């Protein structure tokens, strides 16, 4: 649900506050998430007041759900919206009046909150938000790569040996202790046998590199540039595009 859907009101007096509330909402989001605030020990911002519709939604949702247990989430939201359209206009006005009163207090408190944030806290907020943004982007790229069939990197010789031994793991051992045990076995393994694992891993890695090259070339052709990490391929693709434009 969008910010502006949350802040959609039914009369002009409440609509006049829409820009103020949307602005403070976006500013609050720009400051920091509630979860991160707790982690950093920074004072929490004041809580935004519920709009008339959201307050109605929260109050009536349990009753609608109880009377209609088979409704899925989308159908439940639609049913509540229908109830809102039939709701007594006078009761809506009461909800709007409560909201306007709470909004006035909220805007004052939020302005005071912004002023209370020190430069050091703001710098911490900014750096943390940037890290959160990067982490979300990395997660998005990772998920997209998987959905587009990115080849999986094969295990090293040691990891292949470890995976083979996993079925024989003593359940009474901690995983870290078991890995140390396998590492000792690997170190004591005859070089000839160890070389077999390494050779198999090398063959698998060479195939992986070939598959990755073909996959990234395919991604470039399909326009999924954001999942390609091969700089030479990207530069080559960019050069070809420039050449085709010049020729045209």
Overall mean pLDDT score? 84
Q: Which homologous superfamily in CATH is the superfamily of the domain at 149-235?
A: High mobility group box domain
Distance between the termini: 45 Å
Number of strands: 0
CATH topology of the domain at 149-235: DNA Binding (I), subunit A
CATH architecture of the domain at 149-235: Orthogonal Bundle
Question: Helix fraction?
Answer: over 70%
Task: Tell me the series of helices and strands, N- to C-terminal.
Answer: HHHHHHHHHHHH
Low-confidence stretches: 1-11
* Helix vs. strand class: mainly alpha
| Global outline | elongated
The main pleated sheet reads as: none
Beta-strand percentage range: under 5%
| Annotation field: number of helices | 12
Can you identify the CATH class of the domain at 149-235?
Mainly Alpha
Gyration radius from CA atoms, angstroms: 29 Å
GO biological process, one term: regulation of gene expression
GO cellular component, one term: nucleus
GO molecular function, one term: DNA binding
Biased composition (Basic and acidic residues): 128-149
Could you characterize what this model shows?
- The chain is mostly helical.
- Among the domains are: 86 residues, Orthogonal Bundle (DNA Binding (I), subunit A), CATH 1.10.30; 87 residues, DNA Binding (I), subunit A (Orthogonal Bundle), CATH 1.10.30.
- It is built from 12 helices and no strands.
- The N terminus is likely disordered.
- It comes from Trichomalopsis sarcophagae.
- This is HMG box domain-containing protein.
- Keywords: DNA-binding, Nucleus.
- Pfam families: HMG_box.
């Amino acid at each position: 649900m969008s910010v502006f859907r949350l802040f959609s009101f039914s009369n002009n007096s409440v609509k006049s506050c829409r820009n103020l509330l949307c602005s403070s909402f976006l500013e609050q989001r720009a400051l920091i998430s509630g979860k991160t605030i707790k982690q950093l020990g920074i004072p929490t911002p004041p809580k935004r007041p519920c709009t008339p519709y959201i307050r109605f939604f929260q109050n009536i949702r349990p009753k609608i759900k109880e009377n209609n247990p088979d409704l899925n989430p989308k159908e439940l939201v639609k049913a509540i919206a229908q109830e809102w359209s039939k709701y007594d206009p006078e009761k809506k006005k009461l909800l709007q009046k409560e909201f306007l009163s709470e909004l006035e207090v909220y805007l004052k408190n939020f302005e005071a909150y912004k002023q209370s944030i020190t430069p050091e806290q703001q710098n911490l907020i900014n750096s943390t938000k940037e890290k959160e943004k990067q982490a979300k982007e990395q997660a998005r790229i990772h998920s997209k790569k998987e959905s587009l069939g990115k080849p999986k990197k094969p295990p090293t010789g040691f990891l292949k040996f470890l995976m083979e031994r996993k079925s024989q793991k003593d359940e009474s051992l901690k995983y870290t202790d078991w890995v140390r045990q396998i590492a000792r076995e690997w170190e004591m393994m005859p070089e000839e046998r160890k070389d077999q694992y390494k050779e198999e891993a090398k063959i698998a890695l060479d195939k992986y590199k070939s598959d990755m090259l073909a996959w990234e070339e395919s991604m470039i052709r399909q326009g999924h540039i954001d999942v390609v990490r091969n700089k030479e391929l990207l530069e080559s693709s960019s050069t070809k595009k420039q050449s085709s434009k010049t020729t045209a």
